Amino acid sequence: MPKNLDVLISGGSVAGLALAYWLRHHGFNPTVVERAPAPRPGGYKIDIRGAALGVVERMGILDEIRRESTDMLGSSLVDGEGRRLATMDADLFGGREGDDVEIMRGDLARILHGRITEGVEYIFDDSITAITEHADGADVAFERSAPRTFDLVIGADGLHSNVRSLVFGDESRFIRDLGYHISIFTTPNHLGLDRWELMHPAPGKSAGMYSTRQDAQAKAMFIFASGALDHDHRDVARQKKILAETFAGGAWEVSRLLDSMWDAPDFYFDSISQIHMDRWSSGRTALVGDAGYGPSPASGQGTSLALVGAYVLAGELAAAAGDHRTAFARYEEEMRDFVTQNQKLAQTNIKGMVVTSKAQIWVQTRMLRLLPHLPASWSDRVIGRITETIRKAATAITLKDYRS
Ligand SMILES: Cc1cc2nc3c(=O)[nH]c(=O)nc-3n(C[C@H](O)[C@H](O)[C@H](O)COP(=O)(O)OP(=O)(O)OC[C@H]3O[C@@H](n4cnc5c(N)ncnc54)[C@H](O)[C@@H]3O)c2cc1C
């Protein structure tokens, strides 16, 4: 007879929803507490690669995810006047024909949500304030709801995980700031972009804009080298001020994009950071996704780690008949090397995302311009080297078959 059936999951995004699905599948009773008042739409584009494709296939949602993919056609680097300096077709990197899928985060969350048809309780607009563990379970207090007792508590609440702070200690012990900040928000598609991305690089910073379909809306994106910046991750007014000051006087469409920032419904701003922890569980609590091992947006692998982590954690709990000590230890064993390899990707990627000098921008632009004109064997070798590193990390785990 399995034990520890009642599981509270903090966070109802990629990791939390995937975990709820798999726990339900294995006969557990998951409850999801999410701080947002409703499932969050929108968001930015994210990738599903390698082993994570196997997870969504086993969930029966791979075809739907492919249908809803961004279908991006390519991207261009532009100068201060908007002239295209170098253009990269998505097909050049195997983008549209390869196995990997790119989808907007909100679309993925909606599909995950739709796959969970019954047996999962949701508590929106709430957050855990205390977790007190005892021999028979964990007593949980909430900001709004009445206190309840669960068998297990899982933190799937992202980079600034509340559960991690409550159980493992202050965030500063685990967060590794890579020295950059990123901001992204919805903006009018005044350039009429259709599945295209434009990036305007300047020394130490880069501004961009993309639209995934011929949308009235696009996304504005800013990345800059920042060192460690002092701001609270919930102080949006201060974050907007920092962004406006950092990009003040910027060429291309920068001032127009910044003007639209003040009314953006979904302004996102954060450091590009990773989470490094020696262990992802303590007693009856465990962490999954960005909360335990966020690899940062620069790795492009956060979503895949979250999906695989949820699958493995739920599977190990089922395989151990709910014995959390055994399951949490096996979850860690299965995931550790996979996480390490994917976190490593970010350090290399970030250097290409923000170049530091005009000379580097010149070199990068020339190389990208040259690439489509190289003999196929050369360009295949250059592109193959980049894609192979990502492929290796994305497939650095063999999924067990936990399905009952
Ligand atoms: C700008 C940007 C670009 C990115 N690009 C990519 C990419 O190209 N490819 C890729 O794979 N990944 C990318 N990522 C990373 C990816 O979004 C994350 O790795 C992924 O969403 C992790 O999922 P998660 O469920 O662990 O965390 P999150 O998606 O962060 O979800 C955490 C959830 O917990 C909720 N929550 C937070 N605090 C509480 C609380 N106290 N109580 C209850 N709920 C709470 C939040 O509202 C949220 O719903 C990007 C991230 C950003 C920010």
From TrEMBL:
It comes from Streptosporangium subroseum. It comes from the Bacteria. InterPro entries: FAD-bd, FAD/NAD-bd_sf, FAD_aromatic-hydroxylase. It holds the Pfam family FAD_binding_3. This is 2-polyprenyl-6-methoxyphenol hydroxylase. Residues 5-342 form the FAD-binding domain. GO terms for molecular function: FAD binding.
